[in-house]
Specification:
The protein is an alpha/beta fold. It folds into 4 domains: 170 residues, no CATH class; 182 residues, no CATH class; 94 residues, no CATH class; 165 residues, no CATH class. 50% of the residues lie in helices and 13% in strands. The strands form 4 sheets. The chain has a 6-stranded mixed sheet with strand order 5-11-10-12-7-6. A 4-stranded mixed sheet has the order 1-2-3-4. The model has no long low-confidence stretch (mean pLDDT 85).
């Protein structure tokens, strides 16, 4: 809280009385400055406003987002572009701890305000009206509103909390400020209770990496799992250095854990494999009241045991929300075996994380998750516009303050495949190297992982480090258009096949039956090609750009595509006609193997397809060029 208080004081001195016509920070009202801290933390980068450096210059700009008092229970309004129409954040900021009841009342108040605004803007105060006038908020937009309450307490949930109600605690706020651009966040410091006096084993390793073997209380782990679940960062900071976040769902595994905690809590220790924690430092100190040791961890992370710890957190919330005090007390009698390792060497940390994750087998992709280039690309794609969310750690979610279009969500694996298929025009590698893309080749020390990985992810010339975000956005959008046009085409093929089947059943003439069967076979073949030609279709798109000499990035009218259904349908139809049908035709005319799946995975097929595509474009250059120019004029912004 010290750093936040310091920032509150700094912002108060800079912004008090500004803007002069209707101050968002009133004289002698230091708490008003807490709203600026919240805005700076959650939205400052997105809106490109530097509150620390440019106070008087941006006060008027800030008043477009921050509601001056009186505020109708809404302190901040931020609009985000979204697929189904813009999304609005209504934020209420309280520089105090709120109870469950107070949190619920705050949400209900904002929800009521949003409904009144949505029905008739004149029903709310002047200050909120002025802020909303800078947005596209209109009738019916209450349903597109995300409500956020920020308070200085630790409670980030309550019973019957709605999906669009988000609680941000002081802990989360501080972690966002400290870790927003850090891919491997750590918990700064926490204390854990041991189960009894002097019940731990010290291990001193020659290289100076001491460790402790001890029992940790499930209750403490549960509270921390909840405390460090960070929706703004899209991950649980408690597992920040793990290769993945918790993958646990409500399942038989979770139900089994709950059954043990409730019925035989003392047996949990015997049934569970325990957890592993990496810390930069730790110390043991005796509790002055109980004489039981406390373990103090600094800059630490659970690198094995995320499933168990998350289950403890979920159990705690369920019991707390349903007032099952007796069952909640049982969590205090559950202990797990813990190894606490003091490690500061980054490579050693990464190796420990890899070797400790065996219960749910890790993949080679998981092993690459903590690498510098993965974290760097993630931040490059996510920050600034266009926003692109690239999942590089399994189990993570997109940060809650980032809005993307449907096509802008991908994985590092999928993105590498798309680059090979489209930008590099190599569908074979896109398909064939998926399973080995992240496999480390130990025999060659001149490469980071392997030559296919390095081609995409190497900071020194890899495609993701040399291509602009706009190029990646175009690639992802083309892939999305393929998927949508494929759905449309397959629906049409199924319809035609069914029509022919009906005709076949009613047909008596043998010759006509043969002809109808031939039609059914042809449509089944076309349907099958549609299903497997994704990388070839993207290849064809880039072949067209290359041969026609279109070197610029094509920026599609994404907002209109996602908000105007007629525009979307027409664009998908145009893409289908120009790119997908032509791809299917080329494959149909050139696939020589009995198995279509085998052909699209064969190395020679890439060369065959590319040569055929180049010839096809060259033969009909004038018509294809005219059609492409019409496509660009219609759908490119």
């Amino acid at each position: 809280m010290e750093a936040i208080n310091k920032l509150i004081n700094e912002f108060y001195e800079k912004y008090k009385g500004l803007p002069s016509n209707n101050p968002i920070v009133r004289m002698n009202q230091k708490n008003d400055a807490f709203e600026l801290v919240v805005f700076d933390t959650l939205y400052g980068e997105e809106k490109e406003l530097d509150l620390i450096e440019n106070s008087s210059k941006i006060a008027d700009e800030l008043s477009k987002y921050i509601v001056a008092p009186p505020d109708d229970g809404v302190d901040i309004v931020v609009e985000h572009e979204d697929i189904e129409g813009n999304i609005f954040d209504f934020v209420q900021v309280k520089n105090k701890k709120l109870s469950d009841l107070e949190l619920k009342q705050a949400f209900l108040y904002m929800e009521d305000t949003a409904k009144r605004c949505s029905k008739n803007i004149e029903q709310v105060g002047t200050n909120l009206k002025e802020v909303l006038a800078n947005t596209g908020f209109s009738r019916g937009d209450a349903r597109n509103t995300h409500f956020i309450v920020v308070h200085t307490g630790e409670k980030n949930y309550f019973k019957d909390q709605k999906a669009n109600w988000q609680i941000i605690t002081l802990t989360e706020l501080e972690l966002v400020r400290n870790n927003k651009n850090i891919a491997l966040p750590k918990v700064p410091t926490e204390e854990f209770n041991s189960d009894s006096f002097n019940n731990f084993i010290m291990y001193e390793e020659d290289a100076g990496n001491p460790a402790i073997l001890m029992n940790l209380r499930a209750y403490d782990l549960a509270k921390m799992s909840i405390k460090y679940a960070n929706s703004s960062l899209g991950r649980n900071v408690l597992f920040g250095q793990n290769l993945r976040d918790s993958l646990i769902k409500k399942s038989a595994t979770y139900d089994g854990m709950v059954d043990t905690i409730i019925n035989t809590p003392e047996k949990f220790w015997f049934y569970n494999n325990g957890i592993t924690i990496i810390a930069e430092d730790f110390e043991i100190k005796k509790d002055s009241t109980s004489n039981v040791e406390k373990l103090i961890l600094k800059n630490f992370s659970i690198i094995n045991g995320a499933q168990t710890t998350s289950a403890f957190g979920r159990f705690y919330k369920d019991m707390d929300n349903n007032r099952r005090e007796e069952d909640l007390k049982k969590l205090k009698n559950v202990y797990v075996l813990a190894r606490v390792l003091k490690i500061n060497d980054e490579e050693f940390k990464s190796n420990i994380a890899i070797y400790n994750n065996t219960q749910n087998p890790i993949t080679s992709r998981d092993m690459a998750a903590n690498r510098y280039e993965q974290r760097t690309i993630y931040n490059k794609l996510l920050n600034g516009t266009p926003h692109i969310y690239m999942e590089y750690r399994r189990g993570t979610t997109m940060p809650s303050d980032v809005r993307v279009f449907k096509h802008q969500k991908t994985t590092n694996e999928e993105l590498a495949q798309l680059i090979y298929a489209g930008i590099l025009r190599d569908p074979f590698t896109a398909k064939d190297k998926k399973s080995s893309l992240f496999n480390k080749l130990k025999s060659d020390e001149d490469i980071m992982i392997n030559k296919y990985y390095d081609k995409i992810f190497n900071p020194n010339g890899g495609e993701l480090f040399t291509r602009s975000k706009e190029e990646i956005d175009e690639l992802l959008f083309v892939y999305y258009l393929y998927k949508e046009s494929k759905k449309m085409s397959i629906r049409e093929y199924k319809k035609r096949i069914n029509e022919h089947i009906i005709n076949l059943e009613n047909e008596k003439n043998e010759e006509n039956k043969k002809r109808i069967n031939s039609y059914i076979e042809q449509f089944n073949l076309l349907k099958a090609i549609n299903n497997v030609c994704s990388f070839y279709c993207i290849d064809y798109y880039y072949a067209l750009k290359e041969i026609l000499g279109i070197n610029k990035v094509l920026k599609y009218k994404c907002i209109e595509f996602y908000t105007n259904s007629d525009f979307q349908k027409n664009m998908i139809k145009s893409f289908d006609k120009m790119f997908l049908r032509e791809t299917v035709k080329i494959i149909k005319n050139n696939a020589t193997m009995a198995s279509l799946n085998t052909w699209v995975r064969d190395r020679k097929s890439t060369e065959i397809f590319n040569n055929a595509a180049n010839s096809h474009i060259a033969d009909d250059m004038i018509e294809i060029k005219e059609n492409f120019e019409m496509f660009i004029n219609e759908y490119i912004g």
